[in-house]
Amino acid sequence: MVPGYHEVRELGAGGSGRVVLATYAPTGAYVAIKYLDAALRDDPRAMARLREDARVMVELRDPHVVRLHEYYEDVLDAALVMELVDGVALRKVLSAHGTTSPEAALVVLKDSLAGLAAAHAAGIAHHDCKPENVLVQADGTAKLTDLGIAAPAGEAGMPAGTPAYLAPERWAGAPAGPASDVYAATCVFFECLTGRAPYGTDHPAVLMRRHRTAPIPLEAVPGSVRELVARGLAKDPADRPPTAPAFVAELEAAAPAAYGPGWEQRGRRHLAEPATLLALTFPLAGSSPRPGVPVARRVAGRMGTIRRPRLGPRVVAGAAVIAVAVTVGLVAADRAPDRLSTGTIFTPEQRPPGAEDPPASTGRTSTGKAPSGKNPGSPPPEPVATPGPSRSASIGRATPSSRSAHPSRPDRPTSAPSRTPSGTPAPTATGTPPPAHAVSGLAITGIDAGGATIALRASTAAEVVLSVGFAEGPDPARLAEAPPYSLTLTGAGSHSRSVPHAFTAPACGQTLYRRVTVSTSPQAAGGPRSRTARVSGGPCPPPPVESVDIVSFDGATVRLRVRTGGTSAVTVRLESTQKVVGGEGGSTSGVQVLELSGRTDYTREVAVEFAAPPGCGVYVHRVVTVTTVPGSGTRSRDARLDLPPCGPGPDPDPSGTEWPPDGGPVPDGSAEDGTL
């Protein structure tokens, strides 16, 4: 748990971690805290990039980006304290309604590009733009969240992020950047229009091939926005808009031409309506402010202030939320909501350096006046970015990488000391009992082929016995367990220890599960911990193709058989050509691709795609050619389709009699018996 905050409830979980609703202890301010998943914490490159990006993100102020208040890290947790957006993820809107209107989809794209533009200007790439990371508020405004956070793929050679939204260059190993973010935002735009990502499927290898080589499925989107989709999903980054603002300019030119000058107002209304129907899922639905914290002080308080705890560089600023009921009413009335009207904008309190986290208070003295040195109406000080933290197992908190790296910290007056009523002597300390020995924190921070890493916190430096169990297998419900491993830790209140175990390496194409279970004596708060990791072997080499046969071809359907030497994926290409003889149409051709995997003997019937034959002519000659990747020769089969003739037939004799007539002269003038 991040010190200084009280968790209210969990809001959700995803590939990069879980998000909880929390309040800032001194003021009751609502925030969202994202605890990063262990797999992400175990990626040193991703964590190093996140620490660097956090220094910039705490300074980022844009209405289309969820604000970062502080980054926190210790031996057990890494967390982001963020602005609470009282809205719903775009993924929930699409899950409930399938698609959006074209105007609403354009609003999502415009707001996403605006947020990306602000991030790119600060030198930060998003890395994982997708519907889960677009938050829709009740006024129809969209905000980007999780900047710089991309869950590891979990498979060797796979780029971090969500495969359905990865640009072609990301599959080739290029780092995330503005061009790949524009591509991902266009994939989200496509999904708003059609209800699905551009290239479907959950198979990473197939997705990689389609993102890199498949034609853009423009036929699935309205014709009025096809040019925007084609620009944003261009295979070559050089063919996409050079920047997010440039793409916004193209959008603002295309949208009015297609949907009229009021497209954006209608789009926000169309986006707000399904969002407000999900209002009961908003973070603050059913939540109420902590008692004893006056609304007036929360609203008039310290917007944009900085909180620096005693240990670790942390920056906190104000968070703003909209009350659901008021916003729904304003959207229904087609009015923009007033963010101050509900009295629910909460801001963290600025505290002097080195101060401990105080308990919640009403913020007023017994006389009802604000404490000295506090001026609620004064303008907020500008936040100061702090250097990224480094892990320290000895103190269990994020510590600065160097003392000189800290910015100067201005002095601030403190609240007036409490007064003891006259005639009542102050209590006198009679001795402090020693603290009870307990384990307050326990976590499995890493699992790899050589074992696991365990971190724990204890209230004293006394002895803690750690027991670790290991299990593995292809089925997560039935794992083979190994004998447990025990060790004793002592001499410190915080420990991070690697426990060795030789896990089995997965074969190519195989997936294995590794489970680690840990317990302590004395028992840790919350009991034992367990964590399961999924690992996959590298891709298997393509199997040899032993034979390819065309069993039959009737001019419309081909029946083929493929035999391979393994179960890995094989690609089959069907090339078709058609030539019209004696009619209109000439020659046409096409290609169809099949993906076969999981067996060694395949029989398929495929309807071959040919151009429609003309109504008349002599005949149509059709040829189908089958090749495989990996290759095993080429097979072809042809068919002929006869056509009705195009010209008129011979005219019949108008008299209706045979020619020549019986007994009459033949055309050369001789008689029937050969005499003249």
From TrEMBL:
Feature: compositional bias, Polar residues: 389-405
Biased composition (Low complexity): 413-431
Domain Protein kinase: 5-252
UniProt GO molecular function: protein serine/threonine kinase activity
Annotated segments matching region Disordered: 341-437, 519-541, 629-676
Ranges of compositional bias, category Pro residues: 377-386
Keyword tags: ATP-binding, Kinase, Membrane, Nucleotide-binding, Serine/threonine-protein kinase, Transferase, Transmembrane, Transmembrane helix
Enzyme class: transferase
Known EC number: 2.7.11.1
Residues noted as binding ATP in the record, renumbered to the chain: 34
Positions of transmembrane segments: 311-333
Protein name listed in UniProt: non-specific serine/threonine protein kinase
Species for this entry: Streptosporangium brasiliense
